[in-house]
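Technical annex B. To support the medicinal chemistry partners, we prepared a structural model of the target in complex with NAI, based solely on the information shown next.
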Amino acid sequence: MIVEPKVREFICTTAHPTGCQKNVEHQISYIKSKQFPQGAKKVLVIGASTGYGLASRITAAFGCHAATIGIMFERPATGKRTATPGWYNTAAFEKAAISEGLYAKSINGDAFSVEIKEKTIDLIRKDLGEVDLVIYSLAAPRRTTADGTTYSSCLKTINSTFTEKNLDLKNNTITQKSVEPATPEEVEGTIKVMGGEDWMDWISALSKAGVLAKGAVTIAYSYIGPKVTYPIYFDGTIGQAKRHLIQTASEISAAFSDVKAYISVNKALVTQASSAIPIVPLYFAILYKVMKEQGTHEGCIEQISRLFHDKLFQPEIPVDESGLIRMDDWELDPSVQEKVMKIWDEISTENLMTLSDIEGYWEDFYHMFGFHFDGVDYGKDVDIDVPVPSLS
Ligand code: NAI
């Protein structure tokens, strides 16, 4: 069928299989153009199908020549409904990995569940024996814990209402947006979903099963951002969850003497998870403009490539005074932030096109779903039923 984008505010309900393949191929060729130090050999990526997790899997496989197992929560095509982009990305990733003789298998299901953890452990035991790098890159709206309770995460402030400029994605206009404070239950829910409890559960389960290599490294991703987004991000519900995630890194390193846990604070980038955060997309569009002008803009693949190359496999992993790996160093550079904040004060619907990289924002958005790639004939019929080799 002919697949067209169907965009509803910050989500696209269709995905293009050929375009998603293109997206994965671009990332693979970027990684293949770089040299990586001897790194991980057997890698588990939890949240491996889009955004930072996909970039991590691609870097591990095509940069370090590692065997990878990827966990994801994606939907295959059904009838006339396309699969989710993460499904097509994973199909393309596995095909490319197999064609280069790299081991690549995926598990599709709820990473929070005991069942998926057990399935993963069985697969590691059967095929790899152990893993030496575990990347935790989940971004999820809800989590059901082992006792059957379902928690939801939300993107709200703590204590007081926050009103700021906002990019209305429906019509590219600047409006004012107010975000209401969360209830204590909503704060707790967000910590349960996006905090470190499940990361700890994964490492405990892998360690108990004896499938973690001696000296294994595990890494989870976080974000801090500029002061203007603190009320909605760093000091909001998600920020509370990220503080818990950071605390969990110390707890994992303390509880498992053979495992080192790290947090990498990454750059703000358009992904399915981040485009849902109020107020933040306007910051992204301005940030893209400033960083592209300075020549320091990176996408997920450039960020993770730099993480693997400059940080993860150095004899000593460079961290800041709080023990965090800072991949947001270029984003938070004062010369970038001063310009971003000046534009933030001046921006309006009338000058949005010139003062921000709104086009770059939307280009990244469409690319996530496999649209707007040069060299893809979007007028051509395409088979939407694409198998993921290890799942068929
Ligand atoms: P994303 O939405 O692109 O990726 C989420 C991944 O999680 C996908 O592979 C999805 O299939 C998987 N997933 C979701 N629920 C699942 C479940 N129940 N079971 C199994 N898999 C599940 O998100 P993104 O942005 O790459 O986020 C990954 C991490 O990076 C998050 O912790 C996020 O906070 C962090 N981060 C994101 C930044 C951004 O600007 N996008 C900046 C810094 C950190």
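Notes passed to the chemistry partners:
The first strand starts at residue 7 and ends at 8.
The mean pLDDT is 96.
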